[in-house]
Amino acid sequence: MSAIATISQNPLLQGLGLPPFTEIKPEQVEPAFSQLLAELNKQLTILEANVQPTWSGLVEPLEKLTERLYWSWGILNHLMGVKNSPKLRDTYETVQPQVVQFINTLGQSQAIYNAFKTLRASKAWETLEPAQQRIVEAAIRDAEFSGVGLTGEARDRYNAIQMELAELSTKFSNHLLDATKAFSLTLTTKEEIEGLPNSLLSLAAQAAREAGEENATAENGPWRITLDFPSYGPFMQHSTRRDLREKLYKAHITRASSGELDNNPLIERILDLRQKLANLIGFNNFASLSLASKMAQKVQAVEKLLEELRQASYDAAVQDLEALKAFALSKGAAEAADLKHWDISFWAERQREEKFAFTVEELRPYFPLPQVLDGLFGLVKRLFGVTVTPADGLAPVWHEDVRYFQIADENGTPIAYFYLDSYSRPAEKRGGAWMDVCINRGKTTENGVTAIRLPVAYLICNQTPPVDGQPSLMTFYEVETLFHEFGHGLHHMLTKVNYTAAAGINNVEWDAVELPSQFMENWCYDRPTLFGMARHYETGEPLPEHYYQKLLAARNYMSGSAMLRQIHLSRVDLELHHRYHPGSDETPADVRHRIAKTTSVLPPLPEDAFLCAFGHIFEGSYAAGYYSYKWAEVLSADAFAAFEEAGLEDEAALQATGKRYRDTVLALGGSKHPMEVFQAFRGREPSTGALLKHNGLLAAV
User: Fold this and answer.
1) Which residue in the list 67, 349, 485, 509 is annotated as catalytic?
2) In this structure, are residues 623 and 290 in contact, taking their beta carbons and an 8 Å threshold?
3) Is the N or the C terminus of the chain less surrounded, counting Cβ atoms within 10 Å?
4) Is 213 a catalytic residue?
């Protein structure tokens, strides 16, 4: 077969439609991208020579060009997260610089930037819809932030920095994945597994079998405990062996902080380069650059919100710790007077069990994944009138456990699709949970025929996989996580905007992106929703009423501590990107310890290297934006309060409010400013009242 025939059949060059995952191999990546980028560079040159400052002469051809790139590049990034392998990494690292270079060239195109500015100043501007105007304004701003105004040496420096930052974030991510994978604790005696629930023993025996102990069983071991969250979390909550908890905790907080996988030098370098990048474009620091395109706009606005929430949660967190010490003392614990970090999860879980008389583990049998999905899909039908049905087999998948679904409107017409990859696979899949875009909604015209391209989402979780013939039995936290990611998915999938650049989550200010996801978590505590999905997987009996009451009572258990932790991380992130100067006497770890004095009641250990695992800000898009979780939670709590005010038991009111929410928050995507979208739904600006009330912290203010 000739080389040309091979390349033309490269699945990564399909350029549209669903990715042919079953056909993609790492060795196809390099030939695909060298061909693709050569073609795109040619198209860009032609566009620059013929660009017209009109919607059809500028935005549409530009979108066609970028869509091709993002289709192929999106698949590769997706596979790096869910099917990572040494071979894939190598090819990714080879093509990444070329892709970054093309993105820089595109972002710095003077001809395209000038055309956007001409369009903005032309008479035609007034005829554009608000969504189109926001797209044009964002394009002008993004070009300016991409260094379009730089020339000569400054531009070369900017491009070199972008290139290096992309490489560093990939390296950071790989180090963290490898360091998490590298540590494990093999337990062989009954004393070592004391206190551990059966679900964890089954998982640990399965991990041991995968590591070569083919005869491992849940009853007799050996048991392999890892730093992967479904293993680490339950171990810290339940193991009565304080020495082993300490060992595991210290391994967890020092991940990727020494030896070949040390992320410390990467952090210093990333912060230094971001600072220089911001300076090149005329900002004092990276935080100012980051916030310029967010809802908050200014560092002061973020600090004001964080301080308001800190004051509401600090004393509550102090009381949480005192109560925990008193509880441990009442149980005769030797460590009660001096609780350490590795004691907190354990004693918090014991106190919660006693206070609310149930364990996290007792609830698992009531939340098998298939039922939880039924409950979730039932809820979105109630609220938004859409129907979710399985569509397995209609799309190629990257792993046999991945499922595919369709969403249809009231008339049964398909409006969107999504993949669901639920289970933890520590060897190849990064931790955490996320939603990503597979295909954007948009208007397409081929051979004079106009059609609407339907959106497709990736929903990724890392919950406990099915073990020993049982379905995936979820913790309540895993249920909340699934609802959260599905909220992001709805934002992407229920958009009514037909301009891709403002459809779904596109062009939504970053600190408003978490509104629809955090909004969905509230429904896990809604009676009809919860009872619609919580039934015992073997007997089919519904969740006993007393458990529901206990879940409600336990909802705000230690909520001051939980909020304070988010504020701590947000403040550290902001400080590192705002006031910190790389190369000064302080290290990033010193900054964290300094901020911890007012944002944590149990200061981090001297060796705590959590920053080396803070992927959100060093490999993801949350740099100087981690506060967005809290900013958006103010919006989401206030949005949920609208449903509470309408009456959660009143079906008609619920549906009317749901329709209004769907028509504003979900439908408008990035076509309007988030404040306008929020006001269109709520009829006013947001306030922190609902968030503090939901967290049981209103009295503290």
Assistant:
1) 485
2) yes
3) N
4) no
